[in-house]
Structures are given as C-alpha cells and as structure tokens.
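Hi support team,

I submitted a single chain yesterday and got back a structure, but I'm not sure I'm reading the token output correctly. Could someone confirm the output below corresponds to the sequence I sent? I've pasted both exactly as they appear in my results page.

Thanks,
R.
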Amino acid sequence: MQKRLQVKNVCRILPPSTDIDALFKMERRCRVYNDSTIRFKKIKYEVPDCLPGSRVTIYYMPWDKTCIYYGNEMRKARILDLSANARRFEHPNQ
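Hi R., thanks for writing in. Yes, this is the structure output for that exact sequence:
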C-alpha cells in the first residue's frame, strides 16, 4: 500500500476552460432518407440541410439520445414530431 501511495499520479488536471462534453462525444455515419431524416437508435431526427441519399456524420453523447449534432458545423438535429407532420392532411388546399 505504501509503495502505491508513493507513485506519482498519472492523471492530469484539466484547465477549467476545457469542454469536458467534447471529450466524450462519439461519432457515427448515417444515411439521409428522402424525407430529410436520419434514423439513430430507433429514433428519427430531422436534418433539413442535408441532401437525401447522402451520408452525414452525427455526433452524440452515449447516454443522451435526445441531443445529436450533424455535419462539420455541428448543427443540432431535431427529433421528428410525428403528430406535427400528420396535421398537414387536415387542410390539403392551403
């Protein structure tokens, strides 16, 4: 025990300005569907700035599925609201 306590600690202290979330962010490539959505962990997200049929890199935290970012500019993807998309058939002439 004394031998272990005498060894210098290998952990470094991070400066307070370091963004800790960025250190844990993971990335993955997803295909953009024809309705400008991607599917990640059985949840559909809207990515309006991406071309359908292309692949986009998404960045996410492994423990938080509600907030993902896409593209080099790290834009936030929104979870697809199925009820809002279903209302478009209520007034087809507008």
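A quick pointer for reading it: DSSP finds three helices and six strands in the chain. Let us know if anything else looks off.

Best,
Support desk
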